[in-house]
Design goal:
- 2 copies of one chain form a homodimer.
- Chain A starts with a strand and ends in a 6-residue tail after the last helix.
- The first copy, chain A, has a 6-stranded mixed β-sheet with strand order 3-2-1-4-7-6, sandwiched between helices. A 5-stranded mixed β-sheet of chain A has the order 12-11-10-13-14. Chain A has a 3-stranded mixed β-sheet with strand order 5-8-9, with no helix packed on it.
- Helix content of chain A is 36%, strand content 24%.
- By secondary structure, chain A is α/β, with parallel strands linked by helices.
- In chain A, α5 crosses α7, α6 runs antiparallel to α7 and α7 crosses α8.
- The interface between A and B is large, with 57 and 57 residues.
């Protein structure tokens, strides 16, 4: 199975020429979707991948991620959950690469499990298909972590948390993160996980609210009760812990979760989940991406290049 | 009872010359604490209030709010809860106004109810003293809303939420608020309150987590399921509702709350609390401030001017 793929997110462009599970060539730049205007995408893609196209005239070309959003190359409608390779392949949207070549944007998914809640993803659907999990729970951490329930090898349901973006907001723009100091003391992460326990549990009076716990982190520093070096890791632990409060409750208190993350971030999730008695298996997100694309090509019917 | 007071917060300077409950003169500017450097405070105060000082050589001068913080005029240590007028008056810190006059900065409070949680306030302690509530719960909405339990006319315990600041972060700096459009459709506030119900309740599996509900608000707009005109009021309702989730749980599900807020903001809290079966009484924050200062002067022992 040979293909070319661009993993094209909000802030990064990454492209791979792939054979099986082996990456033959790769390139990346900071030309993420948010850095580009309408009409620039083809030029960026051809500048980075034009040589691969010329050298491999028959290879399918896939594009994954925010490249399919309204701000991306071509608006690619969300496919409703539950969805597997067949449904996702049917939602591919073509873009003209010139010289008779076509690229295919992988659609994101929309989930409306109960007619009230609405959730969306672009990119993680492909990772989930390649997670190796047929039935079980997958977690893809990041700016907007996704918790994804797989059934029969298809995405059955998912739930997004704004954990990573919230951490950045608090550190970069908020009074909450302002007293933070370097060097960071990473023991703060576990203290933040401790604090998140105060916003969960079956007893109603144990839950004080995330908006209070965040303020209390700042209060502890300005009142001289917590070192400013602990603050950022503490906020990270508190937010991660509250994500777990919600996700473990949402997904019926699973006993194991597969984490799609590289080592440093994966280790934090492993630690947080171990405290809740949840076993973890970790897989590289890039391997999951390539495996997911291979499933799309194999099980979906992608038109010829 | 006559006095001069500066209500000196992060973003505003407001000063009043007061007799009883009547404001004889007032002045305000945007020279809040965050706009000033060390050493500038006396000049700002004298420029605005110098004439009052000259005309009223015996009047006590009080300063309330962030003016007592590390970034303010003179660091004024927090007084521990529980605290009433006597304890707060003992914590006053003097500043030299020149020509033999002294000003007194009202200390904020620190609350450590259980040796784990830490909370602080500067300014709201004075409003609470003047709330007219001897035993009961007081809510002071704002950037960092405070819920304050009064016992025997003293501040027994309080809890801060970062609701207002979070709303501003989401609207001004986050992907969550980016799809919002004008004109705002205020029915979104009640839809946001509805959504907050999904993060409370005695049954563990009902709680999805605030970090998910915030992302889901954006998802509903980008998936075309919610009008962009609803988004900002929706976020306001969701955050206010989640503040109530925490505060009502924290304070043992009270049957009534006194709100210290001016009409438009008070009306939102009244609406949100009515849905939870909580009765409300609303009082002007400025009246509460002046009544609280009068209590400090009457019941505390403030040194002569």
């Amino acid at each position: 199975m040979r293909f070319i793929v661009a993993d094209w997110g909000t802030s990064r462009f990454r492209a791979y020429r792939v054979e099986g599970e082996t990456i033959l060539d790769e390139i990346s730049s900071d030309e993420g979707v948010s850095a580009l205007q309408t009409g620039q995408h083809r030029d960026v893609f051809l500048r980075h991948c034009g040589e691969w196209l010329a050298a491999e005239p028959r290879l399918p070309v896939l594009l994954v991620g925010m490249v399919g959003s309204r701000e991306g190359w071509a608006m690619t409608p969300y496919v409703p959950c539950p969805a597997g390779p067949a449904e996702i392949a049917r939602g591919l949207v073509s873009v003209d690469l010139g010289q008779g070549r076509t690229g295919w944007i992988v659609p994101g998914l929309v989930d409306e499990p109960n007619g009230i809640d609405v959730d969306v993803m672009r990119g993680e659907e492909t990772l989930a298909l390649g997670s190796g999990i047929r039935d079980g729970l997958v977690c893809s951490p990041g700016t907007h972590p996704k918790w994804i329930a797989m059934r029969d090898g298809r995405v059955a349901h998912f739930c997004t948390y704004m954990t990573g973006e919230m951490y950045a907001l608090l550190c970069d723009h908020s009074m909450i993160g302002r007293p933070a100091a370097d060097p960071e003391d990473q023991t703060g992460f576990d203290l933040g996980l401790d604090a998140s326990e105060r916003n969960r549990g079956p007893s109603d009076d144990k839950r004080v609210g995330l908006l209070h716990l965040l303020f209390a982190a700042r209060a502890a520093v300005v009142a001289g009760r917590m070192s400013p070096n602990l603050l950022r890791p503490y906020l990270s632990g508190l937010l991660t812990g509250d994500e777990l409060n919600g996700a473990l409750s949402q997904f019926g208190h699973p006993t194991s979760v597969t984490i799609l993350a590289d080592p440093p971030r994966a280790a934090l999730y492993e630690r947080a989940l171990a405290r809740r008695g949840v076993e973890t298996l970790t897989r590289s997100p890039r391997e999951a991406l390539l495996a997911g694309l291979a499933r799309l090509l194999r099980e979906g019917s992608i038109p010829p290049a």
